[in-house]
Structures are given as structure tokens and as C-alpha cells.
Amino acid sequence: MSQYAFLLDLGRCIGCQACVASCKVGNELGEGQQYIELIEKTHGEFPNLTGGWDNHRCFHCGDAACVTVCPTGALFKEDGLTRLDRDICSGCSYCTEACPYDIPVMWEGKSSKCDGCAETVRAGGTPWCVGTCPSMALEYGPREEIRAEAHRRAEALRGRYPNAQVYGETQAGGLGLLVVMPDDPELLDIPIDPKVPFMADAWQKVVQPASVGITIGAAVVAGAAAVIARRRHEEELEVLEAEGVISGHADGGEEEEGQ
Amino acid sequence: MTTQKQALGDREVLRYRKRPRIVHAILASSFLILLLTGLVILWPALSFLAPGGTTRWLHRVAAVGFMSVPIVYLIADREGAKELMVDSFKYDRDDWRWIKRFWSYAFGHTANMPKQGRLNAGQKMHHALVMLLSAAIVASGLALWFFTPSLGATGHAWAVVIHDLSMLALTLLLVGHLYFTFVYKALSGMTRGYVDKDEARLEHAKWLEELEQEAAEGAAEEDKQTV
Amino acid sequence: MARVKLDITRRAFLKGGLATGGLAAIAPTASIGAVNGMLNAKDPWYREGAIETTYNVCDVCPWRCGVVVKTVNGVVRKIDGNPKDPKSRGMLCARGQGGVSFMYDPDRLQAPMIRTGERGSGQFKEVTWEEALDYTAAALLNVKDKYGEEALAVFGHTSGDHWFADHFAQAWGTPNAAKPSASLCLSPRDEAATLTYGSAVGGHEPVDWDGIAAMTLIGSHIGEDARNTVMQDFANAQARGAKVIVLDPRFSSVAAKADYWLPIKPGTDTALMLAWMNVLITEDLYDKAYVATWTEGFDQLAAHVAEFTPDWAAGITDLPAAQIRETAQVMAANLPRAAVIPGRHTVWYGNDSQRMRATYLVNTLLGAYGREGGMYFNKSVYLEHYPYPPYTVTGSSGGCSAEPGEEAAELPLGPTGKARADGVREVFMRGPTAMQELIDPMVSGDPYPIKSLMVYGVNLLNSIPNPQKTIEALKALEFVVAIDVLPQEHIAWADVVLPEATYLERYDDLWTVPHKTPYIALREPAVDPLYDTKPGWWISRELGTRVGLDAFYKWETIEEYLDKRLISVGSSIEKLKAEGGVITQDGKPYLEDFDGSSPFHTETGKINLYSPELAEAGHDPMPVYEPVDEPPTGFFRLLYGRSPVHTFAKTQNTPVLYEIDPENEVWVNAGACEELGVADGDYVMLENQDGARSGPVKVKATERIRHDAVYMVHGFGQNAPGLTNANGKGASDTKLQTRYKLDPISGGAGMRVNFVRLDKEGV
């Protein structure tokens, strides 16, 4: 199984939103539904300003928090991308809380986020955002090739931005979106090194399966045991009745009149 | 002698009056709805029921019902509520000996069990755990309902784990609750309020003795007055 | 302005549904996603059936990228760039991607309509094409009989405009045909260019991006002004290490990428250019050999700029003198691969031709024209026109698709002896017909009455400054026919509305682009016209044949027309399709391609640093700095620009584009906001110096703009109840542009001469 990845070159991205529109149309997204958001970043005070665009989209984490917290498996990893099958989604919105990049949103009761254009690629096409970008800031391909290209671009970008770097090689288990950043991620308000919370992992691996299993198991065992215990108790009652300890009217014994 | 149903009759004894039974009904029905609607989120096989929002809405309505139980109980049966809460945390020597012999009782044997009061030790523990776990589940549930923005990913995960584990424990307690109800034929206590007097003698002897003593003292008073 | 509703009595037969464009019979839904949702929700569109591919030329903005259109089961699903096309090169901007949504906009005009209520009331009844065309023809002829052919004004824009503003108007005999892309956009740029080096800049700006090493952008906000090819070229140039200098009162997207951002005071760019010329000359940095070989008037220029030092300019432009000097040196260090990009929308302050002259003089000193990495020469496409009889009057509508042309010695006259009524050669020197100058004759009858108006694809009330006057004109006209796709704001004021099919539903004339590699591109329909709409060429012919212009519409079918033209280059529609929709020809971009002869079509064959024509006409032969009016106390200068997701006032209703960018904001300096007690996100009304108001509009309190100006994206604040999404969103800069300053050289309408204040009341 090959690993695929996206490249996002923020040195080139000029915030034109062609990707947003192409994605909306190619994926037949609904009213108000968007997988990509362009967020303006500005630092400093007039006229000493720096800034740029955060082309904000799913980072396709290797160690995806959304996949970890998803109770139904609607979010899953495939070929290096974090995919979403909305048909399975139950609308619990845990993914919206877990994602360190704030990516999934609820749309019409279900999670909504970039699906990596997996179906489009399977049908022989290119991811919609990649194919249209006039700044050639987006690429898609085998992860190793994308990684190499990211480094080539970051190297070239250092001519203008000495702190240019590749983000995504190690973060969150290695991202399926490698980003060429002109500067540190903090300047884009992007977390430096997000980790899946231990409790979320524990929940997915232990609590969720155990809860269902233990409950069913307990019900089955208890059911069987209850039948046995009840029979024993009724035997005991018969004995106690014979011994006269109890009056025993369950089987239609004589009612005592008065006191 | 009257034809009216007496609290302490020949065959049956009144265990739960109407008001506590209503409170129990609210508790039981909301709990079951919470369990089923919660399972829809927890169990992948049921998740197809979730989209559309009905499950979510039902869960929240039932949660309000569940949270209202202590308040309704205190309003409708203040004495009973206080008695239940105090009792569930007071254990005497008979209680501890009973607990040591728990498995015997679990398998249907009442003989050789130490005498118990209105609540046996098992019921006391059940109530105590239910109260503590309910507090945990309500707190974590409210956090998930209203405070998710301030929780963060880790806080959210904690809230979910506490909520789910509390529910697991409460569900196991429910399984136990239904188990003992079935084994000791106690359902009528909640449906009609009365339980079999023999069973009461075997399992809650101290309580029955108290009731009989009260009845005797009451009859003596009556006799005095009729003279 | 009173809000008018479109109150349409639908024709009976429409209720039965339509054979083609079956979607029309289904209840309108707001977004393309919902439209697609009606089809099989499980399969993505590309698996629903066979994908049909057609070629087209995008019409969402005037750049006209070649595209490939994908259609499945008779519904257009996706548009992408045509890899063979020299503009799109396989890529496409957000607007182009929104073309599908534009076509399926539920608010589209569906059938011809004739007004039933008072003009402006928006009351119409649907009629047949026959009835509408006959009515229109009769009305046009009626006005002609009373006032002459010249009493018809034809306004046109978007890619079908030549069928009306060029072909029909010239055949009919009115010189009063205009396109907003001339005097409301390019005129100063192109007239200054013609005066300087003999030809207009051209629709496809001939910047040699592949080799450029240093560029200056004056207000050009690449990335917000999102022309596909320019974004590609810019990204590549910068990645290659080209230096970028941006002059802009606002920290735009491209300013944020620049090596130098000069937050220049609005209205002072000419001063800066003069100071640069001073530096280039006094420091001996200019391309001496080039200037010696190819220019006239260097000595005069050198003497002229001697006093325009960086220190002089610093005080005017509000920039440090050292920075002015340094940036000139950066440009010079990279010559001749250095140029000031000419930009596009240049009608700012009314002195714009002179500012553009200054720009070209800098470029000349840098030796850019005809050099690699500088500014190349566009070559026209060789493609014969369809053989028509000579036109009744030669046109001068200009525009962004126009071929570079010559200025006629005598103004062309219509059949009753009248020249165009826009005051050319009187209030302004030269250039294409100035649209905004044709409004007054409609009201005053001076120099002669204009009594009928044909408006094709021009959003009248959201384009021409002083829209209040345009309304007066609409009331005074005897006949107004509007041809459009959507119920734009002015539609309510028409007598007859003729609904056009969009570019995806029709053939059109071949798209020819003067270019480094001149090329011809094909537009063919992907689907049949929706509802009861028709292509522009058909409407033009049907009208033309009803008013006696049969001789100009001899072709039976549009395919016949196109094939006849294509034969002249040995091609045909079929061949063009087989070749991927584009035919490319050889260009002649550089000096060496001219074998020693001059590519400059001036009298002398040299670049005119000093312009004798301007001197003769009584204008400054070399640019001087003319101060502009300052904002009154409490007011800000109103600046405007583009959103990368919208085109002018055209796409605000398009569902996909509307969802991404539903309203504009007014950019106000954060410090200024604090002083005013206005917070980021507050809604305010904008009121201009004449009391005109627009809004409510959201405030964007930002560090990214000077204290003395506010900025907003053009095209919002529309008053069009028929546009479900766009109506009433944001504020309209046009409604706040009650004044403009006429450029006396080109006729351009300088619109950045209005000032606004923020008003929290009346929101």
C-alpha cells in the first residue's frame, strides 16, 4: 500500500481561493460547505508589517486525533490520507473537539472535511485543488516525492525567508500534508507539534470496545446466573416451608385468618 | 378486621409507597433512554441511527429527566429521600458480615445470611455507587453539552472517558439490579408497592420485625381507645 | 433609490417544463451542491455516466482563459483550464471554477420580457422572442426616424459584446458605442502608451514574466485581482528570485510577498516615478545604449526631472527618501529585465494618462521595451474577418478585447453627420468612446439627443460613476433594451429584456489574442441554452435583420461564420477541436525580431520621452506632479479593488462564489477605528462628501492600510431584488462615486476622488 501526500507551498500561495472553489465544485459540496479556508495573517503595526495567508485544510495526520476519537470508524486512514466516509458518520462531533488544527466542522449534522480526493484520484483525476492552483502552490503524489519536492522548495525559499522550513515530516506521526512555510508555524497560529491526547487513545483502544464487550458479557452471564440462582432460591423456599420457617403461600397455601 | 389493603398484611407487606415509586419510574425510564441513545454513539453497529438528530435530542431530554430525580425526590418525599441517602452510607456489623457472604446470597441462598434492615448491605452499596456515579456522569455530561469550547482536546477526551466509564459501571449495576429483582421476585415492590412477606422475613428481617412491633403497638393503642 | 421588485407574469407554456435544460422545471435551489444532490447522491459526478468534453473560453472575467468543460448526462459539472491555452495553461482561478454555478444560478433571466408598469417599476410580462424582437426593432427604428441613427447608444461588455457594441453598432451607424473597459478602466493606460511608444498596451499585458528580474507594482494587487496567467507568472518569477517592489496605500496580498512595500500616499505615484527618473538619470543607472538608439527627447527629460529629487518626492509621497532612492537602484540593478507593470484599471485621479506616461518613461530608461525580461511586443493574430460590406460608421468602442488601432484623423460620422457625443477632441484629447460621457447627452440633449440605449452585459448602475445621474438618463430615454443573463440592478429600468444564454450554452466568435504567441481559441456550447435564452450572435442577427441590416448577417449558421473565418488559417471548427481548442501562431516579441526596423509606431519610429502631440494639444509634454484634493476633516479617501473570488459586480449572486465571499468589508486603519470608536466587525453606513450613502457594511479594523484612506472591494451593495444572494449585501463604491475627474487626455473617469466618513447611525 503506497503512501500519498499533498504539498502546500505557502511561499507561493497568494490567497486567491481557486482551490476553495474547485474543491467545492469538483466534490459537489453543499450550501455553505467548504473544505479549505484561507485565513489572513498579519503581524506588526503599520507600516512595519509582515503577513501572508494560511491556506487552512486537513493536515492528514499520520497519528490522527480525529480517527482516534471517532466512535464509528467514519474517519479512517488510507494510503497516508485521513479519509471521511460521511455515510457512516453518526454526528457525535468528537472529531471537531479532538483535531489540533481545528479542521472538521459539522455540516448538516455530520462531520465535514477534506477526503483527500481519494475517489477522484481513483477515477484517474488529480485532486481538485491541486489541478487548478494558478500559483502552483499545491502538489499531490507519492509521499517520498512530495517530501523531496518540499525540501527543494524550502531551500529555494530561504533566499527570501531565511527561516523557511518544511512542516509535517514528524508532526502528528508524519502529516499527509507537507507544508513549505516561510517561517515558524506559530506565526501562522499552527501548533508546533500536536499530540493525540492519551485519554483519547485509551478511549478508542480500551474504553470503547471494553464497554460494549463487558456490558454484553455481563448481561449474558448475569442472565444465565439469574436463572440458576432463582431456581436455587425457590428450592430453598420449599425447604424452608417444609421446615415451617415460612408459611409459603406462593403455591396457593391456606390463608391465615386473623391474627 | 378491615377489607382495605393493609401495610402489613398476611401475605404481603408495603415496601414502597406511591411517591418513591414514581421517582423510581422517572429514574428508570430516563436511564434506559440514556443508555440506548448513548449506545448509538458508542457502538458502531448502531451509529446508523444517529444522523437526523433525534437520538441526540432524546439523549438530552432524558438527561434533564435524569438530573431532575434528586430534586423531584426531595420535593415529593423529603423524608424518604433523606432516609435513603443516610441509610446508604450507614453500615453496621450485620452489614459487613452480610457483605462477606455476598456470593451465597447472589446464588439464591438466604439462610445463614445475617439479618438485614429495610435495605440490605448490597442495596446500600448499590445506592451509594449509583449516587456517586450519577454525579460523575452528570458532571461529565454537562461538560460535553455546554463546555466543549473550553475543554480542549485533552479535556474533551477525559470527559468522554469519565462519562463512558461511569455509564459502564452504572449499567453493570443495572444488570445486578435486574438480577436480584428477578432472583428474589421483588418486581411487585415497584409495580404495586407490595412484596411477599416470606421473602421480607428472609431478607429484611429487622425491617419486618420493626413493622410488626409498630403494628402491635398501634393495635394496643386502638384497643385502649375502643374500651 | 427606491427598491424595485421584478414582478414577472410568466408565460403559460413555461409551466409545462422544458425539453432541454430539464433542471429549469425543478424548483430552484441555492447552490450547485443542492442541484447535484438531485441526481444520484451516491456516485460522484464523474462516475454517473460518460463525460463529454468541450472547449470554451471562460467568460466569468474579461481575461478569457481557455477552458475544458466536462458535462455528464447533459449537465455541466466541472470546468478546468485547457493545458493547450496560453492564458490558462491548464489552471483556473476561483471565478472560472465558479462558471458552473454561474450557469445554474436559479435567478437567471428565463424568457424575453416587455415592461408592463412604469419604467423602473420592475413590472414585466414574459413574451415570445418574436414579439420581443419585433417590438425592439420597431422602437429602434422609431427613435432613428425622429433623431437619427446616432441617437442610439450601445453599451457592451463580456465576451459577446462585439456582436452589439462593435458589429451591430457599426452596421447600424451609431458612433456612440462604448465599453466600460475603456474609459472606466484602460483608456489612460493605452492612450499614454500609444503616445509614448506607438501602440496600446493591449488586453494581454506584454510583461515578459519568464525572464523578469525586478518588477514594480503600482496598486496592482495580484492575487486579489486574480488574473490566472498573471498569478502563475508572478509566482514563478518570484520563485526564481525576481525582486518585487509594491507601491500601495494598503498592505495587499502581493505587498505581503514583496521585497519592498512602499505605503505611498494616494495620488502621488507620479511624483515617485519622477523621482525614480531623477535617480536613474543623475546616478547614470539608466540603459544608455537603449535610450540613445530608441528614444527621442532624452535631453528634455533629463532637464525636466533634475529638480524631482527623492527628497522632493519624500515629502509628497510620505515615503523615506532613502527608500525611494534604493528602490530605483534595485530596478536599475536588474535592467533590462526590470519593469513597472502597467496594471489594468488605471482611472484613478483624472491625471492618469500622465501617470502612465511616467510609468512608461521609467520603463524606457530601464530599456525594457522589446527586451527579454522586460516588456515584449504583442503580435496580432492573423485571422481574416468575415467578409462584410463596409460598416456604416467605424467604431471606437475600444475595450480589453480590442485590437490595437490607429487614431483616425477625422472622427467617424454617422449617417446624419454626427460624430460621437462623448466630447472627444473637446473635453478630452483622444481614445475610445467614453461611456460615462454619453450619460449627459441622454439627459440634456447636448451636443445632440441620445434617445435609445441598448445595453449588453454592462451592470450600468454598479459601473458608471454617479449612478444617480444614470437613473435620470434611464428615465429620460425613449427606449431601453437590455440583453443580459441575470436580473442585474438596471434590468428593472428596461423596456425590453432579452435573456442571453451563458458562454457554456453557445458558440461565439473566435477568441483571438494579441500575444507573445498570438493564438485563436474556440468557444463551443457544452449544452443547449437553458430556459428560453438565446446566444448573443443570434439576438444580434435577429435584431439586425429586422432593422434592415441583412447585408451584415449573411451567414446562415454560426458554424458557417466560424468555419469561413478559420479557412483563412487553414483550419475549421473540427480541426480546431481536434487540436485541443487552440491554434497558436508565431509572435514577434523582441527588438531583434524586427531586423533593425522599428517596432515603435510613432512618427519618428522612436519612443517619445517628450511627447510632441501632447505639447501640441496643450498638455504637459512630460509628466508633472499634480496634487490631488485632500480628504476633508473626518473623511477618508475611498479606494476600491477586487476580490479574487469575484468579477466586478457580476458574480456576487453566483452561489458557489457567494458562499465563499458573501459581502465586502471596509478596510479602516485600526488606529483610526479606535479614534472613531468603531470596532472590528461593526456595521456602519458610509456617507460621501455629497451626502450619498451606502451600506450597512462590515468594518475591517486593520493595520494593513494607511490612516487617510479606506478600501473596499467593488461590486457589492447592489440594489437588485431579483438577485437572491447579492441583493443588499455590503456597500457599493459606485453609489459613493458621485464625482469623477475626467482625464483630459484619454477621457478616463478618475473615480478615486470621493471621500467617505463612517456613520454608526442609520445602520
What does this molecule look like?
The complex is a heterotrimer of chains A (259), B (227) and C (763). Helices cover 34% and strands 20% of the residues of chain A. Chain A is α+β, with helices and mostly antiparallel strands and 259 residues long. In chain A, the strands form four sheets. Chain A has a four-stranded mixed beta sheet with strand order 8-1-10-9. Chain B is built from ten helices and two strands. In chain B, strands 1-2 form a two-stranded antiparallel sheet. Chain C is globular. Chain C is 27% helix and 16% strand. The chains are: A alpha+beta (259), B mainly alpha (227), C alpha/beta (763). Chains A and C meet through helix 1, strand 2, strand 3 and helix 6 of A and helix 1, strand 4, helix 2, helix 7 and helix 20 of C.
CATH fold assignment of the largest domain in chain C? Rossmann fold
Structural domain tally of chain C = 4
Q: What is the terminal-to-terminal distance of chain C? A: 16 Å
Judging from the principal axes of the Cα atoms, what is the shape of chain A?
elongated
Instruction: Determine the mean pLDDT of chain C.
Output: 93
CATH class of the largest domain in chain A: Alpha Beta
The stretches of 5 or more residues of chain A where confidence is low (pLDDT under 50) are 251-259
- Cα(first) to Cα(last) distance of chain A is 85 Å
Strand order of the largest sheet of chain A: 8-1-10-9
Number of alpha- plus pi-helical segments of chain C: 22
Number of helices of chain A: 7
- SS content category of chain C: alpha/beta
Helix content of chain A: 25-40%
Layout: helices, strands, pairs:
The complex is a heterotrimer of chains A (259), B (227) and C (763).
Chain A: E1 4-9, H1 18-26, E2 37-45, E3 48-56, H2 65-69, E4 75-78, E5 81-84, H3 94-98, E6 105-107, E7 110-112, H4 118-122, H5 128-132, E8 138-142, H6 143-157, E9 165-167, E10 177-181, H7 198-242
Parallel strand pairs in A: 1-10
Antiparallel strand pairs in A: 1-8, 2-3, 4-5, 6-7, 9-10
Chain B: E1 12-14, H1 18-42, H2 54-76, H3 78-87, H4 93-100, H5 102-106, H6 121-146, H7 148-183, H8 188-191, E2 194-196, H9 197-203, H10 205-226
Antiparallel strand pairs in B: 1-2
Chain C: E1 7-9, H1 32-37, E2 51-57, E3 66-72, E4 75-81, H2 94-97, H3 99-103, E5 113-115, E6 123-126, H4 129-147, E7 152-156, H5 162-172, E8 177-178, H6 180-197, E9 214-218, H7 228-239, E10 243-247, E11 260-262, H8 269-282, H9 288-294, E12 295-296, H10 298-305, H11 310-317, H12 321-333, E13 338-341, H13 352-365, H14 439-444, E14 452-456, H15 467-476, E15 479-484, E16 496-499, E17 511-513, E18 519-521, H16 536-546, H17 558-567, H18 573-578, E19 582-584, E20 607-608, H19 612-616, E21 636-641, H20 655-660, E22 665-669, H21 670-676, E23 683-688, E24 693-702, E25 709-713, H22 733-736, E26 741-742, E27 749-750, E28 755-759
Parallel strand pairs in C: 1-6, 7-8, 7-14, 9-10, 9-13, 10-11, 12-20, 14-15, 15-16, 21-25, 22-24
Antiparallel strand pairs in C: 2-3, 3-4, 5-6, 5-16, 17-18, 18-19, 21-28, 23-24, 23-28, 26-27
Helix pairs in contact in C: 4-16, 5-16, 6-13, 8-11, 8-12, 8-13, 11-12
